[in-house]
Design brief:
Layout (H helix, E strand, L loop, with lengths): L7 H7 L9 H11 L12 H7 L4 H19 L5 H34 L5 E6 L2 E6 L8 E5 L7 E13 L1 H4 L5 E3 L15 E2 L4 E13 L5 H5 L12 H30 L4 H15 L4 H18 L2 E3 L3 H6 L4 E4 L11 E7 L2 E4 L9 H4 L1 H9 L4 E5 L2 E5 L2 H13 L8 E5 L7 E8 L2 E8 L1 H4 L3 E6 L2 E4 L2 H16 L3 E9 L13 E10 L6 H10 L3 E5 L4 H11 L8 E4 H6 L2 H7 L5 E4 L3 H13 L4 E5 L5 H6 L2 E5 L5 H6 L2 E3 L4 H27 L1 H14 L7 H11 L1 H8 L22 H29 L13 H24 L7 H4 L5 H19 L1 H7 L6 H26 L8
Length: about 900
């Protein structure tokens, strides 16, 4: 018989297992036989093909064309040095392609490694104890423990089920959740059987135990190869923007090259000289290392964030973080420590602090149903940590159980018979247990949801009618505890007859008391909120707790500073139109309390309509719509469900609000760093281009050859540009407003600074060094110079060396567009200093070694040339310092 047709006991026995799970020895044997519980990835494009594509991108095609033209020119007119240019351009293509492929490979491996920080975990029963293991360790016969929000790790047959509903969309395409039970099914197809849970689907509600009968590629999920976990990150808008910029520069390079080739022919420049000139312009203007540097900057940013407890699931999230304008955050576990402790009890008709001497042992007798409710009505599981038994689940429920255990010295054997699970609309949990006195319903939840279904009250061990006077006292006690920032839970119960109707069981309950639990705020949250205020980022608390509790915690952490913040409850939110909600969000301080997950998504949508860039936190299944709707969905790594984590763009490994602020800081730094190295790269294009313009328009000897340009782009400046890409965040980066979503990476301010300021200064100094050598050798304007003339070789070497010296100065100037070099310093970035040392070593080899002279067509220059350049380099530094000083005196404008 098929496993879905069998009874629970027969199904477990058919897999050689038991209700206590498999033994450790049997698990090892089955792992050898069945392998890891993994689904093979969809076949991707081969690595060889991806490697070859690195040599056929837009930039590479332009350079291949330049190399082909150089080799053609050498073939037609030998001895003009074009073959060296051809080989140099091919070398650039190869080096750039290898570097790009290496970067893409690193991205692939880094993202895989980061995701491995958070493998799907599952609770499994082995040797009679619950252990938390990676899902890949499951074998057929394992008994798994599942609850709302879990992804199903393998194909399983239900053994126990309490209100289990699953979403089978990843397998069947059906979006509606389906009810599942442990009873035998008459369905012949496993995919439709009511007692089967399929790998890759999600548990939307309830709790269950199930026995695994298929793993890995043997699951239905594996058979259809519908791999939800292999979704690749979307192409980053920022990367698309840089690719567009690169195409524009490439097209301009070709257009300018052809235009000036035509001009050179019209003014009588020999064909091959004009040809060299055109190739030089193309090579000078193509930013070969731009895309690899961008990729590395994003990857290193994700690694830095991981060290700060933020796991980035998709690279585009790194850049989007920098423009976040509002954070919608949960309270419990994010703003607070999620370490619940019972502080106050309301029993009978009076409020007591807890623990205190006034709460005596007789309380456990008079109010035994209260403590039984706290002890039995929960969704906790028993597990093991460091060899000791522990409870796993909601910290609030753990605190209630531990409190109850202090007063219940002996607990009778009470088996759970049924459960009506908690959800945001009911805001209560009910369980039915067998007791020595018969079945009893225990119910706990939000007081406003429990009190209306209670008709009696327990007072001093006696049950009496719940009259209006007592109800008023209970509500007053609730308000007192809530205003103290305590989370208040109401306890109730009801003895049942031998049979009961599940739909009507939550009625005519006996109110047993209130428990006020404290969840202390995280100590680092107030400072994080202060940073958000300085950074122009609004923070909105969205919680399921009572409004008074939300306000008290908000005031304690500094989120609420006014006397009368706008408080919107779930009921009030339902009554608001979309327009009214958008207007309400204009309030300087607004908090949402007692809201459901559907309302959370509505809040996110309203903020988006107000043109905010929204980050939202969540941990439950019902939070997934809000996480997907937000620009940045942030799931909790500890308390979060698998469904929430898959819907999110990033995961907080420590569930800490302060980590969100750290991530925003890093996100802003990424955008800023890319602008830094873009400024640095574009600045040296001007001194590379100007010699060709002077050569074409004024008949001045060409001050820089194409091969020397390549030595700058791919040799001396590469590592220093990477150094700028990994700069630490500016200390004041969180004191500025968020950048606008529409802000261009390459805008007028960057273009003016790179091209018309820094670039023109470098170009003027480089040409000055060239003329210094020429006039020092008695050259006069109009005098032709052969490309092999020693004076000409020293002149081009001086121009090349001047650009390198100026770029060494420039890399420190580009560390900030506003802060003085005396503020940023010259230390603190080892990669920049490594690049500077390599830059110096390379230019020395180019200038003073026979091999360098031969390859790059250079000649040794005297110390006087270096001494000539140094004062100009200092002048460049002073000019940039003056510009920065002027900029700093301007008021900061909100670009958001």
């Amino acid at each position: 018989m098929k496993i879905q047709h069998l009874s629970v006991d027969d199904a477990v026995a058919s897999l050689g297992s038991s209700q206590q799970g498999l033994s450790s020895g049997e698990v090892v044997r089955r792992q050898r036989e069945f392998g890891a519980n993994r689904v093979e990835e969809v076949v991707r494009e081969s690595r060889v093909l991806r490697f070859l594509k690195e040599f056929t991108n837009f930039f590479a095609l332009i350079l291949w064309l330049a190399a082909a033209l150089a080799f053609t020119a050498e073939w037609v007119d030998p001895g003009q040095g074009m073959v060296k240019i051809g080989y140099a351009v091919v070398a650039v293509i190869v080096v750039s392609g290898l570097f790009s492929f290496w970067q893409e490979f690193r991205v692939e491996r880094t993202l895989a490694a980061l995701r491995d920080l958070l493998p799907q975990q599952v609770e499994v029963l082995r040797d009679g104890k619950v252990a938390r293991l990676g899902a890949d360790q499951l074998v057929p016969g394992d008994i798994v423990v599942l609850e709302q929000g879990n992804n199903i790790p393998a194909d399983c047959r239900l053994v126990e089920a309490f209100d289990v509903r699953v979403n089978n969309a990843t397998v069947t395409g059906e979006s509606l959740s389906k009810l599942r039970t442990a009873e035998p099914s008459e369905k012949d197809e496993i995919i439709n059987a009511e007692n089967i849970l399929l790998a890759g689907t999600s548990m939307m509600s309830g709790e269950a135990r199930a026995v695994v009968f298929a793993t890995g590629m043997h699951t239905e999920f594996g058979k259809i190869a519908h791999l939800t976990q292999t979704a690749r990150a979307a192409t980053s808008p920022l990367r698309e923007q840089i690719a567009h910029l690169s195409r524009v520069i490439g097209i301009l390079a070709i257009a300018i090259g052809l235009a000036f080739f035509a001009i050179s022919r019209m003014i009588g420049v020999p064909f091959w000289e004009g040809f060299i000139f055109a190739i030089g312009i193309i090579v000078a203007m193509v930013p070969e290392g731009l895309l690899p540097t961008l990729t590395l900057a994003l990857v290193l940013a994700t690694q830095r964030m991981a060290k700060r407890n933020v796991l980035i699931r998709y690279l585009p999230s790194v850049e989007t973080l920098g423009s976040a304008t509002v954070i919608c955050t949960d309270k419990t576990g994010t703003l607070t420590q999620n370490r619940m402790t019972v502080r106050r009890l309301w029993l009978g008709d009076h409020l007591d602090s807890f623990p205190n001497p006034g709460v005596g042992e007789d309380v456990s007798v008079r109010y035994r149903p209260f403590f039984l409710t706290a002890r039995l009505c929960h969704d906790l599981r028993e597990g093991e940590h460091a060899g000791r038994p522990v409870l796993l689940g909601d910290p609030m429920e753990i605190a209630l159980v531990e409190t109850a255990q202090r007063f219940l010295s002996v607990l009778p054997d009470c088996k759970k018979l049924d459960e009506i699970p908690f959800d945001v609309s009911r805001m209560r949990l009910s369980t039915v247990h067998s007791t020595p006195d018969g079945p009893v319903l225990f119910c706990k939840g939000a007081p406003e949801m429990v009190l209306p279904i209670c008709s009696r009250i327990l007072t001093d061990g006696q049950v009496q009618p719940f009259d209006p006077q007592l109800r008023t006292k209970v509500r007053e006690a609730h308000e007192v505890m809530a205003t103290q920032g305590l989370r208040v839970i109401a306890m109730s119960y009801r003895p049942l007859d031998g049979e009961w109707q599940r739909a009507q069981v939550e009625a005519d309950l006996i109110f047993a008391g209130l428990a006020g639990l404290e969840d202390p705020p995280r100590p680092e949250v107030p400072e994080a909120l202060r940073k958000c205020r300085e950074a122009g980022i609004a923070v909105i608390m969205v919680t399921g707790d009572h409004p008074y509790t939300a306000r008290a915690i908000g005031r304690e952490i500094g989120l609420v500073r006014s006397n009368d913040p706008l408080m919107i409850s779930g009921d009030k939110l339902r009554a608001l139109t979309d327009t009214q909600l958008q207007l309400a969000l204009d309030a300087p301080e607004v908090l949402f309390a007692r809201v459901g997950a559907d309302q959370k998504r509505r809040i996110v949508e309203a903020l988006k309509k107000k043109h905010h860039v929204v980050a939202v936190t969540g941990d439950g299944v019902n939070d997934a719509p809000a996480l997907k709707s937000a620009h940045i969905g942030i799931a909790m790594g500890i308390a979060g469900t698998d469904v929430a984590k898959e819907a999110a763009d990033m995961v907080l490994l420590d569930d800490n609000f302060a980590s969100i602020v750290n991530a925003i800081e890093e996100g802003r730094a990424v955008f800023s760093n890319i602008r830094k190295f873009l400024t640095y790269i574009l600045a040296h294009n001007v001194p590379e281009l100007l010699p060709y313009l002077a050569f074409s328009l004024f008949a001045i000897p060409l001050a820089l050859t194409p091969i020397q340009i390549l030595s700058i782009d791919m040799g001396t400046d590469s590592l220093t540009a990477l150094g700028l890409g990994v700069e630490k965040p500016d200390p004041r980066i969180m004191q500025r407003p968020p950048r606008s979503q529409h802000q261009r990476l390459f805008d007028w301010s960057l273009a003016l600074r790179a091209y018309l300021f820094l670039g023109m200064i470098e170009a003027a100094i480089a040409m000055a060094a060239f003329f210094y050598v020429l006039y020092g050798g008695s050259w006069h304007y109009g005098q032709p110079l052969n490309i092999h003339n020693p004076l000409y070789l020293r002149g081009t070497t001086a121009c090349l060396s001047a650009i390198v010296v100026l770029q060494i100065v420039n890399v420190f100037l580009c560390r900030s567009s506003t802060r003085s070099i005396f503020s940023t310093g010259v230390l603190g970035n080892p990669l920049i200093w490594g690049g500077v040392l390599i830059e110096i070593a390379v230019i020395v080899l180019i200038d003073y070694t026979p091999l360098g002279n031969l390859i790059f067509v250079t000649s040794p220059i005297g110390p006087n040339v270096w001494l000539f350049v140094v004062p100009f380099a200092v002048a460049m530094l002073i000019a940039e310092e003056v510009r920065k000083m002027i900029v700093r005196r301007r008021p900061i404008k909100n670009s958001g």
